[in-house]
Amino acid sequence: MGDAIFKQRSGFLGVGIVAKCGVLTPEQLVGLAELARNVDCRYLKLTTRQTLIFVIPEERLDDLRKGIAALDLKIGVFGEIVRNVKACAGNKDLCQRSLSDVFSLGSKIQEQFMNRPTPCDFKISLAGCHRGCTDPLCADYGIIATGSDTYNVYLGGRGGSRKPIHARQIATGINGEGVISLLDFILDRYAALAQPRERICNTIARIGLEAFLPPEDFLQRYRPPEEDDFLKFAGF
Fold it and tell me: Do β-strands 86-87 and 5-7 pair in parallel, antiparallel, or remain unpaired?
């Protein structure tokens, strides 16, 4: 595991830059343009994981590191770790179809979990509605908003493969806090049960999904009270 820096056949370096779920401020965008010129960047490439690749001469890497840090951005991570979070433009400012603020949730998850060691690379994807623009069913841990701060969670997807796998649902109707607590639970189980360099979909295929399912009372604490329970509480 380490930084997302890859030497190309041309001799240049490809360096992945991570923002909060792919969203940049105008100041960061202007700063990146100036930085690209200053470090003799040959190309800039947007990726499907919402990162920005700088293709630069190897000797300019230190200058790029300093410039990225000054813009409050990060060089991406790669290897047996939790990767940067992929999330749709899911809040009231960025998408009219969004059912919940998945941008804020995704940013929080990225800050808390990115670069955490795992048996194999672990990808997280959030979508603000059923359209699933960010391919949550092709992620190791996929989240789809179903309402205001309610989410369904899916586990064990794999895209970008000759044998893609759809993730399977493991939780319904939990809130953002529950999404984070469940992720922590899953990562602990994954670390305990997986073989070295075994993708979580392969661990599930080997030992079964049940080994990753939390107790029902674990999930229930993160669900809104049922309407009948609310009526009883209100005295009706």
Answer: unpaired
Q: Which is it for the CA torsion 24, 29, 31, 37, positive or negative?
A: positive
- Compute the distance between CA of residue 36 and CA of residue 25 in angstroms, rounded to an integer: 16
**Alpha helices (H) in 114-223, listed in sequence order:** 176-193, 200-207, 216-220
How far are the Cα atoms of 49, 72, 84, 87 from residue 20, in angstroms, in the given order?
A: 11, 10, 9, 9
Output the six-digit token pair for 111: 């800050």
For residue 232, count CB atoms less than 10 angstroms from its CB and return exposed for 0-12, middle for 13-18, buried for 19 or more. exposed
| pTM of the full structure | 0.89
CA distances from 166 to 8, 117, 125, 179, 235 (A): 32, 23, 13, 19, 44
Short-list 23, 198, 184, CA closest to 113? 184
- 165-223 pLDDT, tens digit per residue, is 999 999 999 999 999 999 999 999 999 999 999 999 999 999 999 999 998 899 999 99
What single-letter DSSP state applies at residue 226?
P
Calculate helix-pair angle for 102-113, 176-193, nearest 10 degrees.
30
74 CB-near residues (< 8 Å, 6+ apart): 17, 18, 68
Structure tokens belonging to residue 146:
């179903």
CA 84 – CA 43 distance, rounded (Å): 22
